[in-house]
Amino acid sequence: MGKYDDIIHLPHPEPKNHTRMPMHKRAAQFAPFAALSGYEKAIKEAQRKQEEAVRKKDAPVEPEY
């Protein structure tokens, strides 16, 4: 007999004091967000500078922090 054989086929408990949250609202809780605002812009700017330096055959551009 397995560890959870006595409870594995029981029905999932339903909340008694409130209705279930609709699936689309549950999914919204896990929607992506920009944790680092401006990070994407900084990366693209660094990439642009690096590509420009390569085109000019200059030394690599040091990132500006």
Round the mean pLDDT to the nearest integer and report it.
84
Main pleated sheet? none
Structural class: mainly alpha
CA-based gyration radius:
26 Å
| Shape verdict | elongated
Given as residue ranges, the uncertain stretches (5+ residues, pLDDT < 50) are none
Beta strand count: 0
Question: What is the end-to-end distance?
Answer: 60 Å
H/E element sequence: HH
Total helical segments: 2
Helix content: 25-40%
Beta content: under 5%
Description:
By secondary structure, the chain is mainly alpha-helical. The protein contains two helices and no strands. The longest helix has 17 residues. It is elongated and about 70 Å long. The model has no long low-confidence stretch (mean pLDDT 84).
Identify the notable features of this structure and list them briefly.
single chain; 65 residues; mainly alpha
Compact overview of the structure:
With 65 residues, the protein is mostly helical. It has 2 helices and no strands.
